[in-house]
Design a protein that fits this description.
It is a single chain. The chain is an alpha/beta fold. It has a single domain, classed as 3-Layer(aba) Sandwich (Rossmann fold). Helix content is about 30%, strand content about 10%. The protein is built from 7 helices and 6 strands. Helix 5 links the parallel strand 4 and strand 5.
């Protein structure tokens, strides 16, 4: 299996860096091929601007989606972006690894998504009509590939529980799981989350290492998050609202988009 890890932490000697070493070691031990995009080491350019579109005339107004689509089709996107797109096509499984900063991913990783997920590559694909709203949310270029998150956070597990002040961890990660991974077609696995990162001693790290090695060994067997597919018959088109007969009493928000909740 081919595995791409997109790593976003500025300190290689961090807990995140140690967990990266564990993941790579565990995957290699199983005979998998691994590529790591270490964004800070690569000095990854995080902002989308006119320099991303070499074919754009200086007198033209920048319309990011339209220009992204045009230059993706013409294969004239910048070399760094094309290299990451090739890695995504190569990979059977993609892992995004990062510290949870201000309830989301670091800016450099969001910038990787912004630039690499070009129109025509990760979105804007498939038929758009009165009966179909493109190939997305379970379909698309990444369909058939698996993806997951490895996340560290300074807070306690209780802080990210159903009654925790930070909100449930799965709710905080929903925009990444559902929007960044499921949208272009990935099958999304549950995240691996290491809490209280700055309070990790040798004994705690040994447990984290054991658990992460187990997760890496079960990538192909781990049941995915059961998101509803856009074109699977659960949503009205073109409003993209869940069909009334599929609603459950008391279920609102992100949980609406999980199927077979009572089975």
């Amino acid at each position: 299996m081919n595995v791409l890890i997109v790593f976003a932490h500025p300190e290689r000697q961090s807990l995140n860096g140690a967990l990266l070493d564990v993941a790579v070691s565990a995957l290699h031990a199983q005979g998998h091929q691994v590529q790591v995009s270490d964004l800070y080491a690569m000095n990854w350019k995080a902002t989308v601007d006119r320099d991303d579109f070499p074919g754009l005339k200086t007198t033209d107004r920048l319309k990011v989606a339209a220009e992204s689509s045009k230059e993706f089709t013409a294969r004239t996107l910048t070399d760094d972006v094309k290299a990451e797109q090739e890695k995504l096509l190569w990979a059977d499984t993609v892992i995004l690894q990062f510290p949870l900063w201000w309830f989301t991913m670091p800016a450099i990783l969001k910038g990787w998504v912004d630039r690499v997920y070009a129109c025509g590559f990760a979105y804007g694909v498939g038929e758009h009509s009165d009966s179909r709203w493109g190939d997305r949310y379970g379909e698309g270029v990444m369909a058939g590939k698996r993806a997951m998150l490895i996340v560290t956070t300074g807070g306690w597990p209780e802080h990210y529980s159903a009654r925790g002040i930070n909100g449930p961890i799965n709710d905080l990660l929903f925009p990444i799981h559902h929007g960044i991974l499921f949208y272009p077609g990935f099958t999304v696995l549950p995240p691996f989350v290491a809490y209280r990162a700055d309070r990790t001693d040798d004994a705690k790290f040994a447990l984290l290492e054991r658990d992460l090695r187990m997760r890496m060994s079960a990538l192909t067997e781990t049941p995915p998050i059961a998101y509803r597919q856009q074109n699977g018959g659960d949503y009205q088109i073109p409003t993209m609202q869940l069909l009334p007969n599929l609603e459950e009493p008391g279920v609102t928000g992100f949980a609406l988009h999980l199927q077979n909740r009572n089975k």
